[in-house]
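Database export, one record per block. Field names are fixed; values are copied verbatim from the stored entry.
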Amino acid sequence: MRRSPRRLLGLLASAAVAFSLFSAAPTAGAAETAAAAPASTLSTSTPVVFVHGYTGNASNWVTAKSVFQLNGWSSSKLFTYDYNSYGNNINNAQGLATFVNNVKSQTGASKVAIVNHSMGGLVSQYYLKVLGGSSSVSHLASIAGANHGTTYASACLIYTTCQQMYPGSSFIGQITSGDETPGDTKYATWYSACDGIILPYTSTKLSGATNNNVACQTHIGYLTDTITLGQIARFVAS
């Protein structure tokens, strides 16, 4: 079966960014109209906190923010959390807790939604499960999250964050033992066999979540995939 040029380009892009593993600056551009849902069906008052992956930064979420605005969010309700990719994910999760509290204070909201990518899944899960953050989070959307680890982290084991991201680590043991989706938070994940970085690709799935199997998307490709990002916006609005 012939692959479309779009999918072939996606696979080549994934290979080109192998060492950086879990981040890339998304391509600028307007979101596709197909990513939007009718405004009447949306509830877009909840602030959204985007949590990048390994070596990532706020620029990873340019397309996602455009899609969320297309689906009815005000730019003043969209926030990006930056953390130290080479530090410790426990500290990163503690920083996320502080960031969420600041967003709640700034917006007057009782809860936020979290959208994460790759290693951002570990930071988010630790915050929700170990630090009790689920009481402050209405929705958790994990895009290619390294929620059960990835063997690809062997490429950067000199860093504590990558040691924590390797399957079987004590860090992963903490966030996966017992209930993987605690509290009243709505959880959903998006994962794909074409990911190439999350190995095995099913590592993203969370027991108790709505787990969405994307037909074929690369790890970095999600960051500019307006169709999937539109699905995520509508999930957060549900």
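Remark 1: The mean pLDDT is 87.
Remark 2: The two ends are 37 Å apart (CA to CA).
End of record.
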